[in-house]
Amino acid sequence: MNTLLKGIKGILVAGLATGLVTAALPAGAEVVAVVGAKSPAATMTNDQVAQFFLGKSTSMTPIDQPDGSPVRNEFYKKVADKEASQAKALWSKLVFTGKATLPKEVAGSAEVKKAVAADPKAIGYIEKSAVDATVKVVLTAP
Predict the structure, then answer these.
(1) 79 confidence band (pLDDT: 50, 70, 90)
(2) Rounded CA gap, 26 and 30, in Å?
(3) Are β-strands 135-140 and 31-36 bridged in parallel, bridged antiparallel, or unpaired?
(4) How many Cβ atoms from other residues are within 10 Å of residue 97's Cβ?
(5) Which pLDDT score, from 0 to 100, does residue 29 have?
(6) Residue 135 forms beta bridges with which residues?
(7) How many structural domains does the chain have?
(8) pTM score > 0.85 for this model?
(9) Whole-angstrom Cα distance, residue 97 to residue 77?
(10) Alpha-carbon distance 37 to 132, whole Å?
(11) Across-strand partners of 17?
Protein backbone atom coordinates (compact mmCIF):
# COMPACT_ATOMS: atom_id res chain seq x y z
CA MET A 1 0.00 0.00 0.00
CA ASN A 2 2.83 2.40 0.86
CA THR A 3 4.38 1.89 -2.58
CA LEU A 4 1.03 2.62 -4.22
CA LEU A 5 0.65 5.87 -2.29
CA LYS A 6 4.18 6.91 -3.25
CA GLY A 7 3.32 6.24 -6.89
CA ILE A 8 0.19 8.38 -6.70
CA LYS A 9 2.10 11.12 -4.91
CA GLY A 10 4.70 11.02 -7.70
CA ILE A 11 2.01 11.38 -10.36
CA LEU A 12 0.44 14.32 -8.56
CA VAL A 13 3.78 16.06 -7.95
CA ALA A 14 4.77 15.57 -11.60
CA GLY A 15 1.43 16.97 -12.72
CA LEU A 16 1.75 19.98 -10.47
CA ALA A 17 5.33 20.61 -11.55
CA THR A 18 4.33 20.43 -15.20
CA GLY A 19 1.55 22.91 -14.60
CA LEU A 20 3.92 25.42 -13.06
CA VAL A 21 5.90 25.80 -16.26
CA THR A 22 3.26 27.14 -18.58
CA ALA A 23 3.47 28.79 -21.92
CA ALA A 24 0.83 31.03 -23.37
CA LEU A 25 -0.88 31.00 -26.72
CA PRO A 26 0.08 33.81 -29.07
CA ALA A 27 -1.81 37.03 -28.42
CA GLY A 28 -5.25 36.95 -30.00
CA ALA A 29 -5.30 33.14 -30.40
CA GLU A 30 -8.58 31.54 -29.39
CA VAL A 31 -9.32 28.02 -28.20
CA VAL A 32 -12.43 26.20 -29.38
CA ALA A 33 -14.04 22.91 -28.38
CA VAL A 34 -14.74 20.76 -31.41
CA VAL A 35 -16.54 17.59 -32.44
CA GLY A 36 -16.51 15.78 -35.75
CA ALA A 37 -18.38 17.46 -38.59
CA LYS A 38 -20.88 14.56 -38.65
CA SER A 39 -21.44 14.54 -34.88
CA PRO A 40 -25.00 15.24 -33.72
CA ALA A 41 -23.63 17.45 -30.91
CA ALA A 42 -24.57 21.11 -31.10
CA THR A 43 -23.52 24.28 -29.32
CA MET A 44 -22.48 23.69 -25.69
CA THR A 45 -21.86 25.82 -22.62
CA ASN A 46 -18.55 26.05 -20.76
CA ASP A 47 -20.01 23.88 -18.01
CA GLN A 48 -21.16 21.18 -20.43
CA VAL A 49 -17.74 20.96 -22.10
CA ALA A 50 -15.93 21.07 -18.75
CA GLN A 51 -18.00 18.09 -17.52
CA PHE A 52 -16.39 15.86 -20.17
CA PHE A 53 -12.85 17.06 -19.50
CA LEU A 54 -13.17 16.78 -15.71
CA GLY A 55 -14.58 13.24 -15.77
CA LYS A 56 -18.05 14.25 -14.58
CA SER A 57 -19.87 13.12 -17.72
CA THR A 58 -19.18 10.11 -19.89
CA SER A 59 -21.58 10.72 -22.77
CA MET A 60 -18.67 12.04 -24.87
CA THR A 61 -15.04 10.95 -25.05
CA PRO A 62 -12.57 13.76 -24.30
CA ILE A 63 -9.45 14.08 -26.44
CA ASP A 64 -6.64 16.02 -24.72
CA GLN A 65 -3.73 17.98 -26.17
CA PRO A 66 -0.20 17.22 -24.89
CA ASP A 67 0.53 17.87 -21.22
CA GLY A 68 2.10 21.31 -20.80
CA SER A 69 1.02 22.60 -24.22
CA PRO A 70 -0.17 26.23 -24.38
CA VAL A 71 -3.52 25.25 -25.90
CA ARG A 72 -4.18 22.71 -23.12
CA ASN A 73 -3.31 25.21 -20.41
CA GLU A 74 -5.51 27.88 -21.99
CA PHE A 75 -8.42 25.47 -22.50
CA TYR A 76 -8.53 24.29 -18.89
CA LYS A 77 -8.12 27.80 -17.55
CA LYS A 78 -10.89 29.32 -19.66
CA VAL A 79 -13.37 26.46 -19.94
CA ALA A 80 -12.97 24.46 -16.73
CA ASP A 81 -11.71 27.36 -14.57
CA LYS A 82 -8.80 25.16 -13.47
CA GLU A 83 -5.10 24.90 -14.13
CA ALA A 84 -4.27 21.92 -16.35
CA SER A 85 -2.35 20.42 -13.42
CA GLN A 86 -5.48 20.59 -11.24
CA ALA A 87 -7.47 18.73 -13.89
CA LYS A 88 -4.71 16.12 -14.13
CA ALA A 89 -4.87 15.62 -10.35
CA LEU A 90 -8.66 15.14 -10.55
CA TRP A 91 -8.21 12.55 -13.27
CA SER A 92 -5.55 10.75 -11.23
CA LYS A 93 -8.03 10.40 -8.38
CA LEU A 94 -10.78 9.13 -10.70
CA VAL A 95 -8.45 6.60 -12.30
CA PHE A 96 -7.12 5.43 -8.91
CA THR A 97 -10.65 4.85 -7.60
CA GLY A 98 -11.66 3.03 -10.78
CA LYS A 99 -14.31 5.58 -11.72
CA ALA A 100 -12.77 6.61 -15.04
CA THR A 101 -9.96 6.15 -17.51
CA LEU A 102 -7.72 8.99 -18.59
CA PRO A 103 -8.72 10.96 -21.69
CA LYS A 104 -6.85 10.01 -24.82
CA GLU A 105 -3.91 12.38 -25.28
CA VAL A 106 -2.80 13.19 -28.82
CA ALA A 107 0.14 15.15 -30.19
CA GLY A 108 -1.61 18.34 -31.29
CA SER A 109 -4.51 20.01 -33.08
CA ALA A 110 -4.16 17.99 -36.30
CA GLU A 111 -4.44 14.77 -34.30
CA VAL A 112 -7.40 16.12 -32.29
CA LYS A 113 -9.20 16.85 -35.56
CA LYS A 114 -8.50 13.31 -36.83
CA ALA A 115 -9.70 11.74 -33.57
CA VAL A 116 -12.96 13.68 -33.33
CA ALA A 117 -13.68 13.26 -37.05
CA ALA A 118 -13.34 9.47 -36.63
CA ASP A 119 -15.57 9.18 -33.53
CA PRO A 120 -18.99 10.89 -33.32
CA LYS A 121 -18.83 10.67 -29.49
CA ALA A 122 -15.42 12.39 -29.23
CA ILE A 123 -14.83 16.00 -28.19
CA GLY A 124 -11.56 17.89 -28.24
CA TYR A 125 -10.12 21.39 -28.33
CA ILE A 126 -7.87 23.18 -30.77
CA GLU A 127 -6.78 26.67 -31.75
CA LYS A 128 -9.57 28.42 -33.63
CA SER A 129 -7.18 29.01 -36.54
CA ALA A 130 -6.91 25.21 -37.01
CA VAL A 131 -10.66 24.69 -37.59
CA ASP A 132 -11.50 23.15 -40.96
CA ALA A 133 -14.36 21.22 -42.58
CA THR A 134 -13.58 18.01 -40.65
CA VAL A 135 -14.73 19.51 -37.33
CA LYS A 136 -17.61 21.52 -35.90
CA VAL A 137 -17.10 24.17 -33.21
CA VAL A 138 -19.40 23.62 -30.21
CA LEU A 139 -17.82 26.25 -27.94
CA THR A 140 -15.46 29.18 -28.28
CA ALA A 141 -13.58 29.65 -24.99
CA PRO A 142 -14.44 32.98 -23.40
Answers:
(1) very high
(2) 9
(3) antiparallel
(4) 8
(5) 80
(6) 36
(7) 1
(8) no
(9) 25
(10) 9
(11) none
User: For residue 96, what are the domain limits?
Assistant: 2-140
SS3 127: strand
| Residue 20 reports pLDDT greater than 90 | no
Alpha-carbon torsion (65, 67, 72, 76), positive or negative: positive
Question: E strands along the chain, which residues?
Answer: 31-36, 61-64, 104-105, 122-127, 135-140
Q: How many CB atoms lie within 10 A of CB 120?
A: 15
Buried-exposed string 25-63: b where 16+ CB fall within 10 A, e elsewhere: eeeeebbbbbbbeebebeebeeebbbbbbbbeeeebbbb
Partners of 122 in beta bridges = 61
Q: What is the CB-side half-sphere exposure of residue 67 using CA atoms within 13 A?
A: 17
The conformation of residue 134, written as its DSSP 8-state character, comes to: T
Which CATH number does the domain housing residue 125 bear? 3.40.190.10
Cβ burial of 8 (10 Å; 0-12, 13-18, 19+) is middle
